[in-house]
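Archive maintenance. Older records in this collection stored only the sequence; we are now back-filling the structure field for every entry so that each record is complete. The fields below show one back-filled record exactly as it appears after the update. Entries are processed alphabetically, and Metalloprotease PmbA is next in the queue.

ARCHIVE ENTRY
Title: Metalloprotease PmbA
Organism field: Dokdonella ginsengisoli
Length field: 450
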Amino acid sequence: MNSVLNHDATSTELERLAQIAEDVIRRCRAKGASEADVAASVDSGLSVGVRLGEVETVERTRDRGVSLTVYFGKRKGSASTADLDPASIEQTIEHACAIARYTEEDPANGLADAALMAKEIPDLDLWHPWEITAEEAIRLGLEIEDAGRAFDPRIDNSDGAAVQVGASMTAYANSLGFVGTERGTHHSLSVALIAEDENGMQRDYWYDSVRAAGDFAAADFIGRKAAERTVARLGARGLSTRDCPVLFVPEVARGLIGHFLSAASGGALYRKASFLVDHVGKPVFPAWMQITERPRLPRGHGSSAFDAEGVATRDSDLVTDGVLARYILGSYSARKLGLQTTANAGGIHNVVVQPGEDDFAALLQRMHTGLLVTELMGQGVSLITGDYSRGATGFWVENGEIVHPVEEVTIAANLRDMYANVVAVGRDVDPRSHILTGSILLERMTVAGE
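Back-filled structure field:
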């Protein structure tokens, strides 16, 4: 059995999911709900793990379910089931209605405005089933790991390689008459290696994540890249405490942007749990910086024609000339703030940080002397105060050149200052995420070490 359905079977499945969703809406209304929305989904996949030339895991998945929300006036009830069986769905409807009848009213409850529903759903090129057998996936995983292990004799161990294949189909409907279906695939390859010399052991990894398997980097490249990163960390040492410039590589820099997105999200804002409360129209980043949400990028990791409430997505600025242009809102958080939804129920879509002209080498030269961060540890970030303190590993840079690997340091500052003091964004954009950014150079942070 293939891990994903073919095109014809998928079309039939999407129609079935849409029919289920519409039927659930009718049944909720029949039980007295004034409004209702429902999502019916089927997810399928294959996951293979190999380590040291041996197969460790082979897992096929096929999950399905229905989640629904009903409103009795301004009272809300939600329930879900991991089953498309009619009896299970009927029980789920009963549970949601019972919850709604006994909850307190909330004036912010309710569906999004009917006028905002998506009128058309374009093909965003998100569906690329990967017809790979378990045996082929095992061979691919072994090829990735073998390429890494053969790179350098100091690589004497491995945390393994993984091949993951995934496909998702969803139908969303609500009592406003909106029905929308979407399908998408996500595939990934990864490997983590361990090297050892007289100074001890180091571990590092590399991966690729795509919508279409034809977009993957070569298997041996992924293995060699992980090996290069692992060997480069050998001989890592600490630093004395200092203030210095810090350069985040793209896969780490997107986490920095992620904290901004979390702080600008409605849930944190209406709870007054964000340092960006009342910041729309105020500068957050330098005046040259632009950040845009582009929900309909072809093959984008976060692409969608409508949000989790059926609201049509569209391109929209988040940061214009350094100024926070808007918050990130679904209809509930928007009502709590006296604003309108930004089609972000369920989360943010593709976020594009406008890159500068500098490549990675030019950013190192621009930093001149400072810390290059390649990995972060810990969760020391407060969205309420903006305080930021995390363990870091990377490399010490002098005169624009990498001097030696660094470990066991902590980098600290406040997100307000970090964002305001961004020096540059590189053009080395990492495409493996819905947050598309290059390396980010900060003017100064405290590096706490020995």
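Update note: Residues 7-30 form the longest helix (24 residues). Residues 1-5 have pLDDT under 50 and may be disordered.
Entry marked complete.
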